[in-house]
Specification:
By secondary structure, the protein is mainly β. It is built from no helices and ten strands. The strands form two sheets. The protein has a six-stranded mixed sheet with strand order 2-10-9-4-5-6, with no helix packed on it. A hairpin with a 5-residue loop joins strand 5 and strand 6. The protein is globular, with a radius of gyration of 13 Å.
Length: 123
């Protein structure tokens, strides 16, 4: 059974940074396309980043230049670092496996994800 547990969210001021973690189990993590998507209250899911088995990262335009995704296959853990956070980044962030095309656009559409971790950016 696929299990993904996100952590690291919290409240930060605009311009701040946060690192999110995702502990994975129940599947072969090192061979999987992984990613993150977010969903703000009342809005649609937005795929923001992906990383394939060879550690090739991709980012959506909304976070490009501010986000970094990486994975530690020895720990079965996925990470997301967000810098220069804006109020628009406020959302629940979900770690997910990605099926089909390994791309940010596929995050939250194909695969499995966890319960999420809340990121709130405000003054």
């Amino acid at each position: 059974q696929v299990q993904l547990v996100e952590s690291g969210g919290g409240s930060v001021q605009p311009g701040g940074s946060l690192t999110l973690s995702c502990a994975a189990s129940g599947f072969t993590f090192r061979g999987a396309c992984m990613g993150w998507f977010r969903q703000a209250t009342g809005k649609e899911r937005e795929g923001i980043t992906s990383i394939d088995f060879s550690d090739k990262p991709e980012y959506a335009d909304s976070v490009k230049g501010r986000a970094t995704i990486w994975r530690d296959n020895t720990k079965n853990t996925l990470y997301l670092r967000m810098n220069s956070l804006k109020a628009e980044d406020t959302a629940m962030y979900y770690c997910t496996t990605i099926g089909g095309s390994c791309s940010p656009a596929s995050a939250g559409i194909f695969g499995r994800w966890g319960q999420g971790t809340q990121v709130t950016v405000s003054s």
